[in-house]
Amino acid sequence: MIGIIGKKLGMTQLFNDAGQQIPCTVIEAEPNSVLAVTNTSQLKAVQLGGNGSQRTGRASTKGERTPRGRRATLAELGHVKKAGLDAAPRVIRSIRLDEKGNAKAEIPSYNVGDSVKVDIFTVGETVKVTGTTKGRGFQGVVKRWSFGGGPNTHGNTKHRRPGSIGPGTDPSRVIKGKKMPGHYGAERHTQIGLRVEKVDAERNLIYVRGAVAGPKNGIVVVRKQG
C-alpha cells in the first residue's frame, strides 16, 4: 500500500464514453518527499511530507504571528535535513507500505529523498481517502445523531429534546456512551471504495468518484485500497 498527501479542491463532473455523468472530487497532490523509511519485520512504512506550503525552521519570537502555520520542531527539521529539503513541509504523515492482511502483496521500495507523485495511481483502481470533516459546532441530538424529536402538537413543548437519558432507579445514572448534544464534526473520516476516474500528472490532480470528507482546501491522504 502507498499513498500521497493532497488538498481537496472541490467537486466537478466527468462524462464517460456512454455519456453518463460522474460526480468527482478533485484532489491536488504535489510531489511528496520521502522523509524517513521504516523497514522492519513488523512494519514497513514511509514518512511523507507534502502539500506544497512549507513551515520555516527558524525560531519564532514571543508574540510573533505565524500566518503560514506553526514552526517546525527540531525532530521534523532533522528528517528534513536528511532528505535534503530546504524547509519542513506543511504536512507530515506516515503511510504503511505493507498491506495488512495481504502478505502476498508487492511492497514498493523507497529511499529518503525520493518523490511520490500522482502517477502512482491509475484510472480504474480503488482508493480510500482520509480527511477531516467540516466542523459544525455544538449541535443537538436531532442534527448530531438524527433523533426523531418529539410530537409537534397536542401541547408538547419538547420538539427537539433527547427525551429520557437513562432509568432513574437502577442504575440511576447516565450510561457511558449515551448519545447526547455536543460538538459535531471536525473528526477524522476515511471514505473507502472510491474509484479513480482520471489522473492529471501535469497538473498533479487526481479525480475520484464521489464525495470526500472535509472543506475546500482541506488536507487529505489518498491511499491505495485492496
Quick structural gist:
The protein is mostly beta strands and 226 residues long.
* Number of DSSP strand runs: 12
- Structure annotation, total helices: 2
CATH superfamily of the largest domain: Translation factors
Low-pLDDT regions:
56-61, 63-67
- Please give the alpha-carbon distance between the first and last residues: 8 Å
Could you please describe the fold and organization of this structure?
The structure is a single chain. By secondary structure, this protein is mainly beta. It folds into two domains: about 5-135 and about 190-225, Beta Barrel (Elongation Factor Tu (Ef-tu), domain 3); about 135-185, no CATH class. It has two helices and twelve strands. The protein has helices at about 75-85, 140-145; strands at about 5-15, 20-30, 30-40, 45-55, 90-95, 115, 125-130, 140, 180-185, 190-200, 205-210, 220-225. Strand 3 and strand 4 (about 45-55) form a beta hairpin. The longest helix has 10 residues, at about 75-85. The N and C termini lie close together (about 10 Å).
